[in-house]
Amino acid sequence: MSILRAVKGMNDLFCPELNMWQKIEKTAAEIFSAYGFQEIRTPILEELSLYVRGVGEESDIVAKEMYALKDRDEKMLSLRPEGTAGVVRAVIENSKVGLDGELKSFYIGPMFRRERPQKGRLRQFHQIGAEFFGVAEASVDVEVIAMLHDFLAALGLQDLKLILNTLGQPEERVDYLKALYDYFVLHSDNICSDCQRRLQKNTLRILDCKQPQCVKISEDAPLILAFLSEESLEHFNEVQAGLTRLSIPYEVSPRLVRGLDYYNRTVFEIVASSGLGAQNAVAAGGRYDGLVKKLGGSDVPAFGFAAGIERIVLLLIEQSGAAQAIPLDVVLVYADSIGKEKAFELLYQLRRKNIKADLDHKSRSVKAQMRRADRLGSKTVLVIGEKEVQEQSGQLKLLSTGETLSVSLVCSAIEEALQIN
Ligand code: HAM
After folding, report:
1. Angle formed at CA 304 by CA 298 and CA 307, multiple of 5 degrees
2. How far is the CA of 201 from the centre of ligand 1 (A)?
3. What range defines the domain where residue 346 resides?
């Protein structure tokens, strides 16, 4: 019989690596709630049209990477490729954002894109994202980027770079796109085949192509800044001034564009200088003032980002080594049936005090139980037999040094001894 395997690009996760995930998710929840963001959970499956309308029909995500399926009622559904469109749908449908209202939401969960898997690029990956609805002011862009900055700093990530650009407003982009088209059409024989398609459908995305010939040609392409209105320039200047005031370093890259079509004005990426190879964006986002209206809501501005958990984990492992298992505090080893009864009783008392305690259920020899404790990486063992039960005292052994300590066989005494060691 053939071995059943996980779908390509979709990983199983185990401890101790998963301990890192829990720490990342907990850190995000703590920091985001300090900024007033509350968690939102939306379905993994949505109507396909949400992404066609929200992310954009011509985006690579929708054109090439969707996991779509037909429901029994013929409706086309899709596994979510990203979180923003679903959150926007949810807040409109549940009347959570109105004209005057503000809403700050964050989410954590799996996303699905049928990309070519490689280091840091999966078909099922996980994002931690945040969306701030209701404010068009540049200070929100600064606040949300600052929150992301705090989160990544709290995880101890180093050598990250914030790259910033503005895409202006859609009406300002019309002339810019025309200028871009006119420029690239002159070079159409020398750009890659993907970019030849982009030239007709989504010219802006050529700036994001990593093929050397396209990068070279893009170097002399017109820049958006020359096409921006006073207001958009002012908005972008305020974002930069706000980041500077908070001592958050950034770099402006006039060629930064995004793979999703909903953005206007500020867009950004946080990239790692090393450790992620080609997939170096740890987090990315920007402003999307038109999306709520486009998906049927009021005219509500918004700003948000998403960070990739797998990429954060890769960087943490690269920077501080593989995840370590959380060791047991104590394994109770019993020498006979009376010892086993006492060990069982103590085991549950210790666990109720949040002490990581364990015992071998199989009534094996003391030696075998000791070997098991060692294998499990316990800090200590406590051997209990009829004699110890009678004397109400046993020897707590530190496995790292072999040192022993006499303890009474009551939960509080063992707890105290474990704290000392
Ligand atoms: P995105 O740039 O498509 O933006 O994804 C954000 C982050 O998700 C990336 O920087 C990366 O860390 C991670 N990521 C994306 N694709 C993969 C993949 N195939 N494998 C592993 N990690 C991946 C968005 O998704 C927007 N919704 C962000 C946003 C929120 N903009 C406004 N609000």
Report:
1. 145
2. 22
3. 330-420
Instruction: Please tell me whether the overall predicted TM-score, pTM, comes out greater than 0.85 for this model.
Output: yes
**Domain count of the fold of the chain:** 2
Say if residue 148 is in the same domain as residue 263.
yes
pLDDT tens by residue, 287-296: 999 999 999 9
Q: Which tens digits make up the pLDDT trace of 295-346?
A: 999 999 999 999 999 999 999 999 989 888 889 999 999 999 999 999 999 9
CA distance 374 to 397: 12
Residue of 50, 60, 82 to mutate, ligand 1, most atoms within 8 A of C-beta: 82
CATH number at residue 410: 3.40.50.800
Ligand 1 atom nearest to 122, measured from its CA: 20
Give strand pairing partners of 127: 109, 308
Number of the ligand 1 atom closest to the C-alpha atom of 304: 33
Q: Are residues 351 and 278 in the same domain?
A: no
CA of 87 to the centre of ligand 1 (A): 15
Of the three residues 265, 292, 320, the one that is the final residue of a domain is 320
Residue of 119, 311, 313 to test ligand 1 pocket, by largest number of atoms within 8 Å of CB: 311
Answer whether 77's CB lies under 8 Å from 47's CB.
yes
Q: Whose CA is nearest to atom 21 of ligand 1?
A: 121
Quote the ligand 1 centre to 107 CA distance (angstroms). Answer: 13
The answer as to whether 218 is a domain residue is: no
Q: Is 127 a pocket residue for ligand 1 (Cβ < 6 Å)?
A: yes
In angstroms, the CA 111 to CA 226 distance is 36
* C-alpha dihedral, 22 to 26 to 32 to 33, nearest 10°: 150
In a domain, residue 233? The reply is: yes
- Report the CATH number at residue 126: 3.30.930.10
List the alpha helices (DSSP H) in 155-203: 170-186, 193-201
**pLDDT tens by residue, 268-287:** 999 999 878 888 999 999 99
Are residue 78 and residue 162 in the same domain, yes or no?
Answer: yes
Ligand 1: residue whose CA is nearest its atom 11: 308
Decide: 131 in ligand 1 pocket, CB within 6 A.
yes
Q: Residues 347, 393: one domain?
A: yes
